[in-house]
Amino acid sequence: QVQLVESGGGLVQTGGSLRLSCAASGRTFSAYAMGWFRQAPGKEREFVAAISRTGITVYYADSVKGRFIISRDNAKNTVYLQMNSLKPEDTAVYYCAAKTGTITTSQSMWGDAWGQGTQVTVSS
User: Fold this and answer.
1) Could you tell me where the beta strands, DSSP code E, fall in the chain?
2) pLDDT at position 19 over 90
3) How wide is the angle at C-alpha 119 spanned by C-alphas 54 and 94, nearest 5°?
4) Which of 21, 70, 81, 98 has the fewest CB atoms within 10 Å, i.e. the most exposed one?
């Protein structure tokens, strides 16, 4: 089992940037595909981005494509989400998740581990 801890959330103005980090401990980090999800107030949790075990393959939600970048450093057991050109609609609690096997945008397939979440608030 892998344990995940997110950090880097905060309050930022529209158009600003934040970088989220998700540190993993426990089992071999490189064995897991990693993903970021978010849940806005009153809404269901949704897929944001995912990266394969090697980092070669990445997926993004259409709503963040061109603004967010997911990356990973297997030597540091960490996955990142660089968020640029932030909008008020990006306000949410952001969660990282791990799964064995291939990456997918389907949230139901991400069952191996979830972090506790980090709040991102974008002011208008």
Assistant:
1) 2-7, 10-13, 18-26, 33-39, 46-51, 58-60, 68-73, 78-83, 92-99, 113-114, 118-123
2) yes
3) 30
4) 21
